[in-house]
């Protein structure tokens, strides 16, 4: 089944920009922002989960240096996503970054395919398939809202103890950060049902997972509800087969930049399907999904080999501020 993917218009584009958070250190508002983030970090330290509403998230990102014009532009960036090789109802772009807590910088890494998660707690809809997504465009990388989101996440999880995953290098001072721009759609006219989590209850194999709402159209109000489950829940189970006693949190991204962060190895996750308000039109839901984990050890043996090689055609280096 073929679909048309709309290219981004050149009109109204912002010049890509590298956010320098160090320049914010001389603004009083920056330290008010840091205080807000540290309060959220305290909750994350206790619960290993936070859900930050749009009304709180927008001023935090502005306090970290995100430019006003980039908030509007990021709401349109999902128009540039490309076909998912295995799911007809999803379009994706991706980019990999290195967060180096020793040199205090964020750099873009070269493109690598996504390996199969055969050893992770995930019942795959595409077992053994190595997926390759289109690369995130310069408009995404150079958007200061996206850059500020990575800075915000680093501030939240910095020095927060977590349950380690097997065969990741926790002696490293680096983190691998994968940023996915994901558009899910449902089209009842063509029998296409959008599933944000086609594998049912699952874990994504990262250390810290962040999901950020960019926007939607024709989305029914009961759509795309996220449930976090105790790790005792059965991997691959659909929501209706889960044990209510094992549900640890329920959140729904409804407003621009509603943001969820959780320690991925402390919970399993499930998301309900995307339903259309008007079945005669297509329903859309746009998200940023940001996975952060330690580098793989040499004996990991899952998917592609780890590499920290920098991106040669779309380089990025921005400073990382940590208290």
From TrEMBL:
InterPro entries reported in the protein's UniProt record: 2OG-Fe_dioxygenase
Gene3D superfamilies: q2cbj1_9rhob like domain (2.60.120.620)
Pfam families: 2OG-Fe_Oxy_2
A GO term, aspect molecular function: dioxygenase activity
Protein name as catalogued: Uncharacterized protein
Native species: Aspergillus indologenus CBS 114.80
């Amino acid at each position: 089944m073929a679909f048309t993917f709309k290219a981004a218009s050149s009109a109204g584009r912002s010049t890509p920009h590298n956010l320098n958070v160090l320049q914010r250190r001389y603004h009083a508002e920056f330290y008010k922002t840091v205080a807000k983030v540290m309060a959220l970090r305290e909750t994350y330290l206790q619960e290993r989960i936070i859900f930050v509403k749009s009304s709180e998230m927008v001023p935090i990102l502005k306090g970290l240096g995100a430019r006003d014009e980039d908030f509007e532009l990021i709401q349109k960036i999902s128009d540039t996503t490309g076909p998912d090789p295995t799911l007809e109802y999803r379009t994706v772009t991706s980019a990999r970054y290195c967060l180096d807590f020793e040199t205090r910088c964020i750099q873009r890494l070269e493109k690598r395919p996504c390996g199969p998660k055969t050893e992770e707690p995930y019942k795959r809809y595409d077992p053994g398939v190595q997926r390759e997504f289109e690369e995130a465009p310069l408009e995404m990388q150079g958007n200061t809202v996206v850059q500020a989101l990575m800075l915000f996440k680093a501030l939240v999880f910095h020095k927060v103890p977590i349950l380690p995953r097997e065969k990741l290098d926790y002696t490293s001072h680096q983190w691998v950060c994968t940023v996915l721009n994901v558009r899910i759609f449902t089209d009842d006219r063509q029998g296409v049902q959008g599933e944000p989590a086609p594998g049912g209850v699952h874990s994504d194999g990262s250390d810290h997972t962040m999901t950020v709402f960019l926007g939607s159209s024709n989305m029914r109000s009961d759509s795309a509800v996220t449930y976090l489950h105790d790790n005792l829940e059965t991997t691959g189970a659909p929501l209706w087969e889960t044990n209510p006693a094992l549900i640890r949190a329920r959140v729904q991204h409804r407003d621009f930049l509603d943001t969820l962060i959780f320690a991925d190895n402390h919970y399993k996750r499930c998301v309900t399907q995307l339903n259309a308000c008007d079945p005669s039109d297509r329903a859309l839901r746009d998200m940023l999904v940001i996975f952060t984990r330690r580098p793989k050890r040499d004996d990991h043996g899952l998917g592609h080999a780890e590499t920290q090689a920098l991106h040669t055609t779309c380089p990025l280096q921005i400073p990382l501020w940590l208290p």
